[in-house]
Amino acid sequence: MRVTVKLFATFRDGRFKVEEKNLSEDSRVLDILQLLNISPEEVAICLVNGKDVKEQHLLKDGDTIALFPPVGGG
């Protein structure tokens, strides 16, 4: 299956902004995190098709995953 992965803020450092990935049919968000060497603890917000999900969420063909680290500011 094919999914689109969007990275934000510091997750883009040394990676990419948007990229399509080919995954096996039983893939979860956690598989994407492992592929990108991002630990689940580093993820503040994980959206699949605009809905907040956990790392065990089962992905479907055509999904869009957006990953956000904690962001500080004032």
UniProtKB/TrEMBL annotation:
Highest taxon, organism lineage: Bacteria
InterPro entries, sorted: Beta-grasp_dom_sf (IPR012675), Mopterin_synth/thiamin_S_b (IPR016155), ThiS/MoaD-like (IPR003749)
UniProt-listed CDD domains: Ubl_MoaD_like (cd17040)
Name listed for the protein in its UniProt record: Sulfur carrier protein
